[in-house]
Write a structure and sequence with these properties.
Blueprint: H1 7-14, E1 23-25, H2 36-63, H3 70-95, E2 105-107, H4 108-141, H5 146-149, H6 152-177, H7 195-200, H8 207-240, H9 245-253, H10 256-278, H11 285-309, H12 311-327
Antiparallel strand pairs: 1-2
Amino acid sequence: FQEGYPASSCFSLYNNSTSKFPTFLLAGIPGLEFAHAWISIPFCCLYATALSGNSMILFVIITQQSLHEPMYYFLSMLSAADLGLTVSTMSTTLVLGIFWVNAREISFNACLSQMFFIHLFTFMESSVLLAMTFDRFVAISNPLRYATILTHTRIAQIGLAVITRGTVILTPLVLLLKHLSFCHSHVLHHSYCFHPDVMKLSCSDTKINSVFGLTAIISTAGVDSVFILLSYVLIIRSVLNIASPEERKKAFSTCVSHITAVAIFYIPLISLSFVHRFGKHAPSYVPTLIANVYLLIPPVMNPIIYSVKTKPIQKAMLKLLHFKGTHF
């Protein structure tokens, strides 16, 4: 039985009666339930950093006319995706009080809604990182046509395509779960609803769900990562064709922030996959911690990376803070 849960409640969650719309029990960090109150402190700090950092980036880009350029429009899309991801996971991790009051129950429909938005914003982040790679490629390989290629209309079309692709891929994935029956343990392994996690609890045939799930991840993060890699091969080739060493260094330095953002998105994703497949003997809290890191670190780190590495963002933030300070 889960610590802090009455036996009658646990029995209703663990029994084998078949249910179409069960109530799931979200996990905290297995084996560390006694420390949940203390663990909530760094989680709160991370959520506060993610919310404030991405909100600041969005506000600065919207309000500063000098930042109304393709690169910063894509950065605002990345911040919007990070904000959505943060709010989607925060709703169960902190707001419903897994770490504070041990409130772990979540209804089937609420679970599906959270799952949809978590995966949607994750797929959107992957798509935006690919769009930002294209932006860097055009800026370096064809700078004279940069403004004519990445017009406001084209950027809006890319943004719409990012949202549409994620929605079209995820809708059937979520709807297929509504046709499953759940007669096993209703205890999830994360502090939020995750498609593979929910699917494993079903006693129905989940082959179609597995195929759709695999197709979804390959057609989004899988395809995006391949195109990002190929784009950087082309970017490196374009940089090496620049005659001046100073210009080569300057051109490649504009990609540093983006390369870091790609790394902090894909490395936790790959780590989580390896732990689930090869970490069977690892302590039970390790996959849960990595799963939380996977969804929290990019929203926390992206605003910091772009604030530190991008001088126009730095100047705009300092200008805004100075303006507020003088009026205070």
